[in-house]
Specification:
single chain; globular
Length: 333
Amino acid sequence: MRPNSRFLLPLVFPWFCVSQLDGAISIDTVPVGYPTGNVPYEYRIGTYEVTNSQYSAFLNAVAADDPHGLYHPVMARPDIVAQGGGIERFGSPGSYSYAPTIGGESYPVRIVSFYDAARFCNWLTNGQPVGASNLNTTESGMYYLGGVSQPPNSEVVRLLSFQKGQNGVALPSRYEWYKAGHYDPARGPLHADYWTYATQSDSAPLATVPNAIFANSANYNNAVGGLTPVGSYELADSFFGTFDQSGNVWEIFDSFWNNGDGTDLRREGGGSYGASAIHISTNYASSSFPYDEHTDMGFRIVTLEAIPEPGFPGYAAAFAFILALWRKRRPSS
């Protein structure tokens, strides 16, 4: 296990609400082809890590009461916000609303656990409904959690099989994640088809600030001192077109640690802004307890088909989001 680092907008313009949440409710994905032994099917993976804006839309849809702790108050702590944005919560239990901090919308969400991320995937699988946490929103879909905040780790597995053509949204398996970030069919068997780093390179990326100059660069080794907005390293994508799979934040998989029985740990990979070169390569893997909420850990999603924009439920979530911003910015009486 790795070292512990944690701890008035007019309402007559519904188009504005949706446009501001468009990136949050229709997640960009890229296709991953070339079926291989460990992943004998084609699928899609998030182009970027899930952002504060996207996770806020999820919270506004299902966490008015938040019985499962999908939101962590540390997300709004000043030092966390200064280091890479965050999420604020407004109101009281039963009427909570949420919004990303100003300027932090496109930073990766963090301080989320495997259980939080699994519920986010269930919500997407169920079509992004609005309502309390139940079997129709967060507690079933891709994973069955059954209303238990922290069910036994070994029991939370995929209910839908991509290999059988059953579509849904999941956390990546270790093989899906590494293939999306490191595989390159043009490399041939002499190079084992996989790049060492998710920047299409076997040489360590340049640890530097975001740029559109260096194809082999990344946010790690404290070069920035915190997070960067997703996709900031514009030229440093993988063969399939994903960004930030080396550096920025560790990413949660739904695989058990070392393919074990799942009694304790979940696998994660990719390193973070404070990690060294070895940690962001294919030569290193890590793990966390499924309830851990690290300050340098986030996630991305996988699916079989592109995630469509929702209908009315999406408008409702958008309305809640904009209302939260209005509450934050209106003058105090």
